[in-house]
Write a sequence for this structure.
């Protein structure tokens, strides 16, 4: 009996690379643009802010003030006490969602070219509401039917053995500033059977998806996270400033030396925040708010619902500074500690913050490289797009994602907590959980769109 073909990672990377170069596709770019515009208007989509007391199916726990769903599932909004060393301590609201969801991308060959099955999906917090998501994007509560809605389309390819071949399967974290220990299963599977057509889904080549990554608010966060895990050809990247082993020892040392203490506390008791009829806000009007929305979507598993969302105060920036070292492109990463991070610190962009939070702040409190990022213009901006964060939990949370070329004259000095790494080194770490944060993964997906 013939053995089944087993693809090595380099062979798989070559297939994705061919898809990234493809000029032919099932849908032309114009046909896709018409389809996507049609999906944005095909169903009734509506989202409006409501008072916190207007949440249905949710309640404020009488003992803690936490916001809890009536089923005890989905997620809760609780209080978190954080200490990262004296005097760095604070309290804040945090989303607690311990269950692991699936972010799954199905791929299939058409005329010898891999195509990706993308979904036009409405999320209440998205800018524009409808964005392109992976084939499947679902919490465990969703796909086991807690919401008592319609079943998740194409879920079987990711949950039933034998329906597909698994190409990528790794747990990755999500926003550490707003989630406590949140992680999702990032999957890519290959299908060979005929996939039933559905009006909300379309097949695109990787070249087409990367074109869309250059546009604002089209490819959603969950899709960007999975796309960052697409295997890349090793190529001849050249020598890195630090070996892979040196990078891992450095990050391990950062984690071992850090003093990160996380403790859940009653939401009602957090200091520095206050509750009004329509939001839970920071006393200084900074950072973010907890708000409530009412949503309607004709093509969702549940057509009408209310829920709390986190709404940041202002637009963030996530940026990599890049320069050649010995002729090899490098990115400056930081080992970033965030309130809800699972494993103390993850590799993050050079700069990741909401600049408005530091307006008028003394120099000692301003993030490193803020001035370099704000001053970047023109050809220095190798990648520059505005992208929505997780629209199922955050309301109009956007970051301006940038890759900024600083040139060979930029200092090679590495401040504490920073290292120069190659893109290939970051991608290699994506084969493992909890090394590269979600903002850095979005930038890696975007970097693939401009090479």
């Amino acid at each position: 009996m013939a053995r089944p073909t087993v693809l090595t990672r380099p062979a798989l990377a070559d297939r994705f690379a061919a898809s990234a170069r493809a000029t032919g596709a099932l849908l032309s770019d114009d046909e896709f643009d018409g389809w996507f515009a049609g999906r944005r208007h095909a169903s009734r989509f509506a989202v409006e802010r409501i008072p916190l007391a207007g949440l249905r199916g949710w309640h404020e726990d009488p003992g803690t003030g936490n916001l809890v769903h009536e089923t005890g599932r989905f997620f809760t909004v609780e209080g978190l006490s954080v200490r990262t060393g004296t005097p760095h301590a604070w309290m804040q609201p945090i989303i607690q969602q311990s269950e692991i969801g699936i972010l799954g991308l199905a791929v299939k060959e058409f005329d010898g070219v891999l195509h990706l099955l993308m979904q036009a999906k409405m999320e209440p917090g998205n800018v524009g509401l409808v964005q392109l998501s992976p084939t499947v994007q679902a919490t465990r509560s969703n796909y086991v039917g807690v919401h008592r809605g319609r079943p998740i389309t194409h879920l079987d390819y990711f949950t039933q053995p034998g329906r597909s071949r698994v190409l990528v399967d790794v747990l990755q974290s999500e926003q550490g500033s707003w989630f406590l220990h949140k992680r999702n299963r990032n999957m890519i599977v290959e299908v060979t059977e005929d996939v039933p057509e559905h009006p909300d889904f379309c097949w695109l080549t990787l070249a087409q998806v990367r074109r869309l990554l250059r546009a604002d608010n089209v490819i959603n966060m969950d899709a960007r996270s999975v796309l960052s895990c697409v295997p890349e050809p090793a190529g001849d990247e050249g020598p890195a400033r630090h070996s892979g082993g040196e990078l891992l020892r450095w990050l391990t040392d950062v984690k071992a030396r850090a003093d990160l203490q996380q403790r859940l506390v009653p939401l009602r008791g957090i200091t520095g925040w206050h509750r009004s009829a329509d939001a839970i806000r920071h006393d200084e009007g900074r950072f973010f708010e907890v708000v409530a929305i009412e949503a309607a979507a004709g093509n969702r598993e549940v057509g009408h619902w209310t829920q709390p969302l986190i709404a940041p105060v202002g637009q963030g920036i996530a940026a990599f500074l890049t320069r050649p070292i010995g002729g090899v492109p490098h990115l400056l990463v930081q080992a970033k500690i965030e309130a809800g991070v699972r494993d103390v610190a993850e590799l993050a962009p050079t700069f990741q913050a909401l600049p408005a939070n530091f307006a008028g702040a003394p120099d000692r409190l301003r993030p490193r490289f803020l001035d370099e990022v704000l001053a970047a213009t023109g050809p220095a901006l190798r990648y520059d797009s505005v992208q929505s964060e997780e629209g199922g939990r955050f309301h109009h949370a956007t970051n301006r994602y940038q890759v900024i070329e600083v040139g060979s004259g930029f200092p090679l000095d590495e401040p504490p907590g920073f290292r120069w790494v190659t893109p290939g080194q970051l991608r290699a770490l994506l084969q493992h959980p909890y090394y590269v944060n979600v903002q850095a993964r979005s930038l890696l997906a975007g970097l693939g769109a401009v090479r």
